Amino acid sequence: MDLHFISFLALIVLLVTPKGVYGASFTFVNRCDYTVWPGILANAGSPGLDSTGFELPKDSSRSFQAPTGWSGRFWGRTGCKFDGSGSGTCLTGDCGSGQVECNGLGAAPPATLAEFTLGTGGQDFYDVSLVDGYNMPMIVEGSGGTGLCASTGCTTDLNRQCPSELRVGDGDACKSACGAFGSPEYCCSGAYSTPATCKPSVYSEMFKAACPRSYSYAYDDATSTFTCTGADYTVTFCPSSPSQKSTPVSETPPMTVSTSQVSGSETGLTYSDNGYGYSGSSYTSSGSDSSTEAGGSGSGSGEAMLTDGSWLAGLAMGDSATTAAPCILQYAPMAMALATAVCLLVPWHHFFSSFYG
């Protein structure tokens, strides 16, 4: 092929390549009536963004550009006190750096986490996780992308309805059951380290009832992980309400947890107000997103599930490791775009050759 045709082919490939190949922008918005200090942690192997922690006054926003393939997590720190040199600590979500910048350190539980894995020419995966507990309301919304692109997060103030045994301080944050008790059945560890053995507890059910689209425990994949292709994302702290253009995030009234339900297995709990139910060992949805137990198959947000649930469970727990299956899923759309461009343009080669002599 001559130089002119190669240049023309490159232009067409550029036009048909999904926007997600070039990464995404993340915009942080603070609608709280107090200052929030967002923290940013890139997973191992992902480059750092322009900041690892910063001050975000109320009614303000700040944006960052992330490259394609980036993965990591965001959270909000509250009750921070920093001196003129930027040294200090935070009441919740503190990363232990002693500075405004977290410098590669993660949030101390409990903290509400937004987790992302940007696709390389394919789908982005994202979720809001309460697996490490909760410290403040947060939602994630995608814009400009294709696919499901549903909003997710938790707009309920769980600190106000946190059981006393999970409460931190004067209601500053709410621990997960794993963080409070450390037992394997709550932490999905040891003999409970698989989707088949680690089931929702009465505490994770409380989180799920209040925030049905957020991760409530390690294997809560089917109703909690979402996908979008080629989008930019907004992370909002203390949202007054989801965007009018977004899929609404359902909520339910506060739930009272009986400590007599803590030990043993909890079955038969149903939350009809938000469209999600729990009976025995699996979640079901009576709303528009149909899903099955973690490790199964489904539609809606469940399309992001792998057969054994292991990779997306790792995503919820902040595992930076990837597997061959997500890699293939990410690269397939770009390969298809390249193949399509070549198939369409090769027959024109003779035309360009004769035109340019």
TrEMBL record:
Keywords: Membrane, Signal, Transmembrane, Transmembrane helix. Residues 1-23 form the signal peptide. The chain crosses the membrane at residues 328-348. Residues 241-267 are annotated as: Disordered. Gene3D superfamilies: Thaumatin. It comes from the Eukaryota. It holds the Pfam family Thaumatin. This is Thaumatin-like protein 1b. It comes from Hibiscus sabdariffa (roselle).
